[in-house]
Amino acid sequence: MKQISFVSNIFIFAKELQQTSSIYTVCLGFKIKFMNENLLELEDARGLKISYLSVNNFAQQTKGYSPVISFKVTEFDDVIKQLKTYGALQEGETKDNIAYFKFPNDEMISIIKDDQQDDDEQATKQQTQMEIEIEQLLRKIKI
C-alpha cells in the first residue's frame, strides 16, 4: 500500500473571498497565509491549509469539482497508476509533478510529488561522503 506523506491542501470554490476570510479568521482563528482577488489561503493552528478559489459563474459554483484535496506522495508514478487501476479518471495531463483525478463520486484530488524522499536520499549520500572523508583524514593523522 502506498504511503501518503500528508494532505498538502484543500481547495474549495467560493463566490466571496473577503467574507470567507473574515469568518475563518475572526470566528475560527485561522490565519491568512495568502490572499488576492482570486485566491485565499488559510492555515489552522496545526498547519492545515485550506484554499478558496474565486469563481464567478454558476457552472463553476454548482458543477465544479469542489473541494479538491491535494496529497503529497513519495511514490508519485506508482500512485498515479494505482489510482487509474481503481477507477479514478485523470483530468488533464500531469504537469510540474502534479496530477489531478476525478473520483466516481465527482470529488477531485491532486497528487503532488513529494521531493522530501529525494532530499533525504541526497542528505544520506552527503553524510556518507562526509564520513568517508573524515575517516581518510583520521587515517592520515594517525600515520
List the main descriptive attributes of the protein structure presented here.
143 residues, flat, 8-stranded mixed sheet, alpha+beta
Principal-axes geometry comes out as flat
Number of strands: 8
Q: What is the H/E string?
A: EHEEEHEHEEEH
Biggest sheet layout? 8 strands, mixed
Q: Over the alpha carbons, how many angstroms does the gyration radius reach? A: 22 Å
Low-confidence stretches: none
The proportion of residues forming helix, as a percent range, comes to 25-40%
Counted by DSSP, the helix tally is 4
Summed over residues and divided by their number, the pLDDT gives a mean of 77
Class of secondary structure makeup: alpha+beta
Strand content: 35-45%
Strands side by side in the biggest sheet: 2-3-4-1-5-8-7-6
Distance between the first and last residues' Cα = 52 Å
Q: What does this 3D model show about the protein?
A:
By secondary structure, the protein is α+β, with helices and mostly antiparallel strands. 38% of the residues lie in helices and 36% in strands. It is built from four helices and eight strands. The protein has an eight-stranded mixed sheet with strand order 2-3-4-1-5-8-7-6, covered by helices on one side. The longest helix is centred in the C-terminal third of the chain and has 27 residues. The radius of gyration is 22 Å and the shape is flat. The model has no long low-confidence stretch (mean pLDDT 77).
